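[Q] Does anyone have a clean structure-token version of this?
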Amino acid sequence: MQESNSIELRRSMGFWALTLYGVGDMLGTGIYALIGNYAGAMGNAVWMAFAASMVAALLTGLSYASLGSRYPKAAGAAYVTQRAFGLPMLTYVLGLATLASGLTSMATATRGFTGYVLEFLNAPGNGALAYVVMLAFIAIMTSINLRGIKESAWFNALCTVIEAGGLLLIVAVGIRFWGSVDLLQTPIDEQTGAPVPLDLRLILSGAVLTFYSFVGFEDMLNVAEEVKEPERTFPRALVAAMIVTTLIYIAVSITAVSVVPADELAKSSGPIVEVIRRSAPWVPPALVTGVSLFAIANTALLNYIMGSRLLYGMARQGLVPAPLARVHTRWRTPWVSILLLMVMLVCLALLGQIGDLAQATSLLLLCVFVVVNISLVVLKRRPDEPKGRFEVPSAVPIAGALVCLSLIGSRIHSIYQTGNWTAPALAGGLIALIVVLYLVMRPKVTVEESAVA
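[A] Here you go.
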């Protein structure tokens, strides 16, 4: 392959392309596959979980919008953290923790895509065909990512329009059911037989579950170097994407519990299909399956793009091997990082059940957001630090950090009650592994602008 260590990434994304990128990333596959889980935890009040997590995410999202207008750089949280604190180990841990989250999301999407295809073909889930579909899917995503950000943005736009259209179809055919249920009704506690109290603790636990549905701003920041006029475009696109996504989530969640009782929705293996079946039986299930495939493919590709740009940015900082910063001279994509992630993705996707790992990395991502919010506070108080075109008061990142900390605390309390410490143990193990890797490699920051002023 043709390559260069000095050529920059191509700036091809404008406001609409970046907004669609964010909407597609945030919508992802969660609302299609996990709305049943959310309804099981919150009952008919599931929309409140989305509203609460939107408020929580918006605070951190505004911090990211400000950081994107100040430092439109690849590596996202890793770049900002290093600039604020000048602590390579902290930067290294945050960068690879974010990468781990993206990888598990990609692996989950890969296995989800494979499952849908096999179900459509009525084929066994553990045969040779499963591996063929899985590897073919990864190869296609790799090819799109390698080809360029413009091509990736077009594919993302196509997938986003299809998956958003599918969700809007659900709202359109189910809106006549609105008002038929109590939207404040919570699930029944199996021990007491009474409804679970609709209190702050329940809302926070629900927000923890749905918070991950709004975290596309980290992925958006990682492609800032491929955005036209990022100082102006990035904040507007991020806020627009969050508003659009929130409206869709709340509308779909209200529709879902209005059409299908929350307890039945929670038990359904295909909750969205069940909503369509009851509200519009004339819609073929294959249509929903097709839309879901596009949503899953979009999630995988956007996390793939994020991970490769994160590695590219960290390589330019000197935190990971320099070859990962190589850019193809024709396609202007970080091809070495892309191919490395492909190998890692194949290995992770073949492991099988990675649900606990996904929960662990989502918990780590909350920790990343805490540090990023604090980083913005530090940078805002530095007199000689350049300002961005979109500034927020220090109260915003402080509140964002506190909200994320409260979500972490709520998650740990929930784990304490259930006694299942697998996810936090895996999170701690990942951090320990990353620290050991750092101590072995002893990377040194080489980008002057990333050091503390």
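[Q] Thanks! Anything notable?
[A] DSSP finds 17 helices and no strands in the chain.
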